[in-house]
Write a structure and sequence with these properties.
The structure holds 2 protein chains of 2 kinds. By secondary structure, chain A is an all-alpha fold. Chain A is about 40% helix and about 5% strand. The chains are: A mainly alpha, B mainly beta.
Chain lengths: ~300, ~240
């Protein structure tokens, strides 16, 4: 009994001693508006709040995560981000580039809907900035590469029925439905085959479940999602294939797929005869599991 | 007089061909890639979810993880100089092209030099997304609906990058990004030639998407052709 306790004590001391050694190798900073984050401060926070999921080495292999196929089912159904790969879903920058510090800061602040990453709004802004600085020590990319230039987002044009209709045409033409399904419920013909870049199964976004998207809740956030792509997932960037005006039309249409959220777009859409018919014809209108897709 | 001109013309032709022959002198490495054992049987691909592609293949195409030829030859093996040769000072000016046709990547393995332009073409009536799962280079993922013009990309670090289309899960390719322009990809015959090697000691590697990589050393002393053969162990699964 005594020896076990002693062994545990020794282990904890060893662990504490190893932490500073690991990250003293490099120091990083983050800059978000007027905030300046420092990795030394961020390290203390990371090993208090984050490593249970993101892992001791920031590789997304924390004890709360066990890969699919291990003898126990994973406690988390979506693998925590692996910071050593420096591939991030939610960016304001083009596909294939590093996000800005602000993108990462916003991700911590917002959390990720439909995953186990909570909103860290309880931490101070300075805490969050420090964490971003520390997260950047896990990959040499942050030393060797610059963040991408944020994409240009023109002001949102006025919402019209024509805009929604054109968005719907684009939804067909760009074949968004192949994964997201004709009604945006994440049940398209390719949906069941999708895997992320770590070969873990991943499901396309189901628009009918709520108001929030993976990378935010505003129309601008939605615009960014398909114009930058969600790197590390099957969601590609459409920046090279659609014009900004068309992209806004698509945003307007996608909003009408959110049965559980009464957006101005949906309100306008159901006020037209065509829109009202389409919404009424949806399998089970207004419920999150309308197409029998298990959430 | 006419004969004189004719004589001169013949001389010129002879001289020109002599220069062409001497051209970039040096030795070469040549040989064959084969396998022993039983390779995995390739499965037919069901494209019924994508009719515009399915109708392009009256007989269904099969997966291409292992493609073999008569006499146990192995296709789609990248044979290249991994060490000994000079690194390329600049990427070749000509672009390499990958075409998506019939929901298939043509060619299946796309070798290129670091920073060489890669042109991506969609010849299909359906949307594809091109998703190189790079680890050393940056991972990116771009949609290419039908009728959109080709786009260009390049990779700045050597790496064998698996490529997939998430819409059509059977589509797989590999971008072989190399430091050298001395490379060859085996065809059905399994044979390869790496020409124009100046005297020196080289490391030659052969890479196959399912069977991994093999390495051999070779020394070129003059303008000889060194025979080299690679034998991969086939796995039945």
């Amino acid at each position: 009994m005594r020896t076990t306790k002693l062994a545990k004590l020794c282990f904890s001391i060893a662990a504490v001693l190893t932490i500073p050694e690991m990250s003293s190798a490099q120091q990083m900073e983050s800059h978000i508006g007027k905030l300046n984050g420092h990795s030394d401060a961020g390290k203390q926070l990371f090993y208090r709040y984050c490593w249970g999921c993101h892992g001791f080495r920031g590789d997304g292999m924390g004890e709360n995560w066990l890969p699919t196929g291990s003898f126990m089912e994973p406690y988390l159904n979506i693998q925590p981000r692996n910071f050593t790969a420096a591939t991030f879903k939610c960016r304001s920058t083009p596909t294939g580039t590093l996000p800005t510090d602000e993108d990462l800061y916003n991700a911590i602040k917002r959390g990720f809907v439909l995953s186990n990453m909570p909103s860290w709004i309880t931490l101070t802004a300075q805490n969050r900035a420090d964490l971003i600085a520390f997260i950047k020590t896990f990959s040499a990319r942050w030393k060797n590469e610059k963040s991408g230039d944020p994409i240009n987002i023109p002001p949102e044009p006025k919402l019209t029925v024509e805009s929604i209709k054109h968005g719907q045409e684009l939804f067909q033409k760009l074949e968004c439905w192949k994964c997201h399904g004709q009604e945006g419920r994440g049940d398209g013909p390719s949906a069941s085959t999708l895997t992320d870049s770590n070969d873990q199964p991943i499901r396309p976004y189901n628009f009918s479940v709520g108001s929030r998207f993976k990378c935010g809740a505003t129309n601008q956030d939605l615009y960014k999602i398909f114009m930058t792509g969600l790197d590390g997932t099957p969601m590609p960037s459409f920046a090279d294939v659609i014009k900004p005006d068309d992209a806004w039309d698509l945003v307007h249409f996608l909003r009408t797929l959110q049965d559980a959220y009464k957006s101005p777009e949906l309100a306008l859409w159901v006020s037209t005869k065509e829109g009202a018919q389409q919404v009424a014809a949806r399998k089970v209108s207004g419920t999150p599991t309308g197409s029998g897709f298990k959430q | 007089m006419p004969t004189k001109i004719g004589y001169a013309a013949v001389l010129v032709v002879l001289a020109a061909s002599a220069i062409a022959f001497a051209g970039p002198s040096g030795g070469s490495v040549s040989g064959k890639v084969t396998y022993e054992g039983t390779p995995a049987k390739q499965k037919p691909i069901d494209m019924s979810k994508e009719p515009s592609c399915a109708q392009q293949h009256p007989t269904p195409i099969t997966t291409e993880t292992v493609v073999v030829g008569p006499g146990n030859t192995l296709q789609n093996v990248v044979v290249y100089i991994s060490a000994g040769g000079p690194d390329e000072a600049s990427a070749p000016a000509q672009a390499v092209t990958i075409t998506q046709k019939g929901c298939q990547y043509l060619p299946h393995v796309v070798p290129m030099v670091v920073n060489q332009e890669l042109k991506v073409v969609n010849a299909d009536q359906t949307s594809h997304n091109i998703h190189p799962l790079a680890k050393v280079n940056r991972e990116w993922n771009k949609s290419q609906p039908p009728g959109t013009p080709p786009f260009s990309e390049k990779f700045d670090k050597p790496e064998f990058i698996p490529v997939k289309c998430n819409v059509h899960p059977w589509m797989h390719s590999t971008f072989a990004v190399l430091k050298t322009s001395h490379y060859a990809v085996t065809a059905e015959t399994g044979s390869f030639t790496l020409p124009n090697l100046s005297p020196g000691k080289y490391t030659v590697k052969a890479w196959h998407e399912s069977y991994g990589e093999q390495t051999q050393e070779v020394t070129i002393t003059g303008s000889e052709t060194k025979a080299l053969s690679f034998v991969f162990k086939a796995k039945p699964y």
